[in-house]
Amino acid sequence: MTERKVRWGILATGGIAAAFTADLVDLPDAEIVAVASRRPESARAFAERFGIDRAYGDWEALARDEDIDVVYVATPHSAHRTAAGLCLEAGRNVLCEKPFTLNLREAEELVALARGRGRFLMEAMWMYCNPLVRRLKALVEDGAIGEVRTVQADFGLAGPFPAAHRLRDPALGGGALLDLGVYPVSFAQLLLGEPAEVTARAVLSEEGVDLQTGALLSWAGGALASVHCSLVGGTAVTASVTGSLGRIDLPAGFFHPDRFVLHRDGRDPEEFAADPADGPRSTLRHEAEEVMRALRAGETESPLVPLDGTLAVMRTLDAIRERIGVRYPAEAAAA
Predict the structure, then answer these.
(1) Active-site residue among 77, 80, 92, 98?
(2) Fewer CB within 10 A of the terminal residue: the chain, N end or C end?
(3) pLDDT of residue 239
(4) Cα 91–Cα 92–Cα 97 angle in degrees, nearest 5
(5) Other CB atoms closer than 10 Å to residue 205's CB: what's the count?
(6) CB 134 within 8 A of CB 123
(7) What is the pLDDT of residue 2?
(8) Is residue 137 annotated as part of the catalytic site, yes or no?
(9) DSSP string, 152-218
(10) Cα–Cα distance between 142 and 301 in angstroms, integer?
């Protein structure tokens, strides 16, 4: 794999799969070998769209394809455990969309499976791979704003989403928290690690998923994070990190920023802009590049998106759902 292209399989054919594949085809060291969907016609249409040779009408066939080095799992998160598990059990490496799974238990099962099989596994938290977010993290770790005191982040969509939409479907893990709130929570934990305490409130739909959730995360050292997500109001989708010596502000679309501003006491604000060579702000290629770098290096985890960090985020998401009273049918069936 060090000298040849990394061969990809795409599992699912929805919007995020198309966006990722569109970026992947532009990477010279990547080759897309096959795509799979539970609907053969969807797989064939996707394959024709992106010039992919093989189209499978079931997930198992893709998982068993020995010509594939790594599978990108892009199903709804309610199916991540099943889809990623099939691939890992068949010996494939896996990049799995976020949120990583429906809950911590499923995430722990996938991590144990990957580690037991010696396979690479990574959550597709593209924010962590973004060069500008990595720059921000390095500045914070180097003490540019002193000791972190607070983190604020929000992600809300105006909607309205009808009851039949997947975002409101309990069977698909619907709700604002897992689809949108994973970003503010992941951003806070990127900078502060796993919180010691979690409090939360939410407005629930008639179906029992969260339409709007606010959470306060706290750390033993005194830091606090305020995170918010919504399916009923278009928020600013911004973030800020405040420390003892200054503050960093990220504009709209904080999880894939094109710039951020560093404010330090006694100094003029400093703007850090994305390098045009890194491509458009919406690109997903950075996470693909990190996967391929890790595979070529013989790594089974990415230092940018470590599995223990993914598990920590899932613990927080579980804790928030426990506080707001959201439980999914699949969890009740597994109890």
Answers:
(1) 98
(2) C
(3) 98
(4) 140
(5) 21
(6) no
(7) 64
(8) no
(9) EEEEE------TTSGGG-GGGT-SHIIIIIHHHHHHHHHHH-S-SEEEEEEEE-TTS-EEEEEEEEE
(10) 24
